[in-house]
Design brief:
The chain is mainly alpha-helical. Helix content is 70%, strand content 0%. It has 7 helices and no strands. Helix 6 (80-96) packs antiparallel against helix 7. The mean pLDDT is 84.
Length: 122
């Protein structure tokens, strides 16, 4: 019983810590709370001059809103290899418990000849 209670301590710490976390600037901007998003960005960066990054986040949110039916793109033939690789990486990582697989995966794929834009489908 004591071991179970001790095992729950990290979970409780995470739970209560999550109550004080602020929302991300991107999340706030996506929901139309631009001033709060900019304020969160200033708080995170610790500087007042975040205009360039704010505009970049705003553009990224606008591009993300344009995507219609994202799961439909996953079923296209060109998306299957990256999807299978991603699923298998997560499966092997969980089965082996080796986080290094996930950490070094981009380097391994570049070494094998895959480019950084493999997942990008036009």
């Amino acid at each position: 019983m004591v071991s179970l209670a001790i095992a729950g301590i990290p979970g409780l710490v995470l739970f209560f810590s999550s109550m004080i976390l602020t929302e991300t600037p991107a999340s706030l901007i996506e929901r139309g709370k631009d001033t709060k998003g900019k304020a969160a960005l200033k708080k995170i960066r610790g500087v007042d001059n975040v205009e360039d990054e704010y505009e970049e986040v705003k553009r990224a949110c606008e591009i993300a809103k344009e995507v219609k039916q994202p799961f439909k793109k996953l079923m296209k033939r060109s998306s299957v290899p990256p999807l299978v690789i991603g699923i298998m990486l997560q499966t092997f990582q969980q089965m082996t418990g080796i986080n290094a697989i996930m950490f070094y995966a981009p380097v391994l794929f570049q070494t094998m000849g895959f480019k950084n834009d493999v997942i990008c489908c036009h």
